[in-house]
Amino acid sequence: MQELLTTLNAYGFGLHHPGSLAMAALVILLTALVVHLVLHRVVLRTFEKRSTASSRLWLQIITQNKLFHRLAFTLQGIILNVQAVLLLPKGGDAAMIISTCAQLWVMLYALLSFFSLLDVVFELSGNAAFASQLPLKGIFQGVKLISALVIGILMISALIGKSPAILISGLGAMAAVLMLIFKDPILGLVAGIQLSANTMLKLGDWLEMPKYGADGAVIDIGLTTVKVRNWDNTITTIPTYALVSDAFKNWSGMQASGGRRIKRSINIDITSIHFLSEEEQARLIRARLLKPYMDSRSAEISEWNQENSGDESVLNRRSMTNIGTFRAWLNEYLRNHPRLRRDMMLMVRQLAPGPDGLPLEIYAFTNTVVWMEYEGIQADIFDHIFAVVEEFGLRIHQTPTGNDMRILAGHVQRG
């Protein structure tokens, strides 16, 4: 390059001579074309062929995100700027225009290259275990936004020929406006950091948020929105900051525990509750699950009645009830069920009676969290309960239906 300048000066073609400017422009143009052809027609094509044939995932991801294409354009801009500085007269309009355009070119493609690098890192991190715990997409989007703002300031300062510090100092007066414009991205970035730091949510979690109609699996955590694929295959979009400001339910703890809770009541008709007769006791004691309970309970009641004998009134004697015996049988039935976990809470309890009878609540955990299996186990348990409850002389409470009323009216008419 220096020899070319010396030769031009020797023949009277200084840097400001029109002929030298034309020749310098021609050299810049030819160099740009040669560099472009070498990089894009030779180097990048060779790399793409090798990455396509290779089984390495990182090579394929780099090619798909065009990282080296954008780096090549950045290098072309750098070479163009260097040529403008060396071949064109300093302070001239041509040098200033070409150098400014080259700088803008370099900054733009450097920004795009950085975006591609972030995309490559994001896709590669998808295979890492730690990545599922972090909302990386929202964090990377926040970094992209900040990078774009910085490069934007640098590009404007290059165009107007002023220091970036002057533009940054002028932004102080526009802080309120910028906060309003970028409110959602800023809140989303802060919310994403909070979600990650407190391990509140990750991709694949089962999220339930009735306020937004969300009940399904998290499929995307972005800078400003979180997408949930509901169980009916609809997509619900939730503002990211709403997950910090509002309450939501994350079912990942249940899935990690390996057991899903059954918490359902059956309503017993209170008028069907009574003391067991000797015939009923003799029949129920033949049940394998009830025999230990009835033997110990009968011995306990007999001993108490003997110690407090004298008055044979039912009010002064103890007897087994059908509801108590049913509760004992149900408890043993659940403890011996092969699909319920014995190492987690398991009980049968009475709730406060009401207009719908006496609620008898079953509280247990299945040994699976798969939804279809869970529903099948729960249905099988209650199918059996409804079928066996009459063996204890109990009735399930049910609000009278129109058919019940017609039967009653028919009996009244016949009477």
Automatic annotation (TrEMBL):
GO terms for molecular function: mechanosensitive monoatomic ion channel activity. Residues 184-252 form the Mechanosensitive ion channel MscS domain. The chain crosses the membrane at residues 20-39, 67-88, 94-118, 139-160, 166-182. It is found in: Cell inner membrane. It comes from the Bacteria. GO terms for biological process: cellular response to osmotic stress. InterPro entries: LSM_dom_sf, MS_channel_C, MscS_beta-dom_sf, MscS_channel_2nd, YbdG. The keyword Methyltransferase does not apply. PANTHER family: MINICONDUCTANCE MECHANOSENSITIVE CHANNEL YBDG. This is Mechanosensing system component YbdG. The lineage of its organism: Bacteria, Pseudomonadati, Pseudomonadota, Gammaproteobacteria, Enterobacterales.
